[in-house]
Amino acid sequence: MKLGDLGEDRLLNELLPRLSPGKAVVAGPRDDCAVVETHDRGKLLVLKTDSVVEGVHFLRGTNALDVGWKAMMRPLSDFAATSAVPQFALITLMLSGKTDVAWVKQLYQGLRTAADRFRVRIVGGDTSSTPGAIAISASVIGFVERDRWVSRGGGKPGDDLFVTGRLGGAWKRKHLRFIPRLMESRWLTKNFSIHAMMDLSDGLGTDLPRLARASKVGFKIEAENLPLSRGAKINDAISKGEDYELLFAVPRRENKRLQKKWSRKFPKLPLTHIGSLTSQSARSLSAAADNPQLKGGYVHFQQPS
Q1: CA distance 29 to 199
Q2: Which among 149, 158, 194 is positioned nearest to 34, based on CA atoms?
Q3: What is the DSSP letter of 200?
Q4: How far is the C-alpha of 79 from the C-alpha of 119, rounded, in Å?
Q5: Cα 288 from chain centroid?
Q6: Which tens digits make up the pLDDT trace of 10-46?
Q7: How many contiguous H segments (helices) and E segments (strands) does the chain have?
Q8: Rounded distance, CA 248 to CA 155, Å?
């Protein structure tokens, strides 16, 4: 069997049971970030690593500033999903000897600009030569208060599902210049009981089932209510991926208060109620006018259908 036959999630199912995280691990490989205990009883240590690869996350000839920005912002989007505060970063570069030095300098400028936006300090890393595609890996460390940590696994039947921003528009350069919803997630956990949260990097059709599996619940969404980017269709919002918006579950009793306060705090950023979590056996999608199906989003190692 090849990786293309297996796909990312099934590969992880093969690998992760062999790990022994230990008692200090609060959240492990199946969540957006690793979360571990520290000597500080009020805070948890948060760690995340992510990468961008030429030909997968960006095309040859892409502006190096944009590549650096994206490489730094991808793990920060996972910090947003955890409601964590990033502090330090390590950068690993894998480059061909034929790569222009000027391009690499611009790449690092993009990394620094993105890090500075959220007061993250790049403190080291590694460089390696490769005969293949360019790859950049960013590892971030930070913290989250014990009472504000959010995982994928806390959703409950009856919770309302919300998404920030608009979906399906990554193909219009959004995937290169997005801004992680760190400020928004911190505000959410300060003011509301957020049961579960994750960032939409692989598409709603892949990420929502992941949240549901982690929470051991089902889900029902109203596809006709999905907030679409200009020019996008419902299937784009479900399957295209790289929106880097927040998907989260909140108790139904907080629905109206949340929407009212959100519109005052973030008047330029849409917040949309897209459905709810249900008992584990119930999993459906309401039919929109063109009867879309909940097709999966991006899956590593597999060719998109």
Answers
A1: 15
A2: 149
A3: -
A4: 13
A5: 26
A6: 776 676 666 667 788 888 777 889 999 988 889 999 9
A7: 9, 12
A8: 9
Give this prediction's pTM.
Answer: 0.88
pLDDT band with cut points at 50, 70 and 90 for residue 294 = low
Neighbours of 87 (CB within 10 A): 16
DSSP reduced 3-state for 227? coil
The residue whose two tokens read 């210049």 is 177
Mean pLDDT, all residues of the chain: 89
Name beta bridge partners: 248. 162, 197
- Determine the Cα–Cα distance for residues 236 and 205; give it in Å rounded to an integer: 10
**Bridge partner residues of 148 (DSSP):** none
Provide Rg for the chain, Cα atoms: 19
Owner of token pair 């549901």: 212
Closest CA to 55 of 134, 131, 172, 138: 134
Cα 300 to Cα 19, 67, 269, 296, 304: the distances in Å are 21, 19, 30, 12, 9
> In angstroms, how far is the first alpha carbon of the chain from the final one?
20
Greatest CA separation for the chain? 58
| More confident site: 300 or 274 | 274
pLDDT tens, position by position, 160-200:
999 999 999 887 788 999 999 999 999 999 999 999 999 99
The full set of domains in the chain, from first to last, is 3-145 (3.30.1330.10), 160-286 (3.90.650.10)
What percentage of the chain reaches a pLDDT higher than 90? Answer: 75
Burial classification of residue 41, based on how many CB atoms lie within 10 Å of its CB (0-12 exposed, 13-18 middle, 19 or more buried): exposed
Take residue 169 and report the two structure tokens written for it: 């528009």
302's tokens: 């597999």
Residue 204 pLDDT: 94
CB contact at 8 A, 261 and 184: no
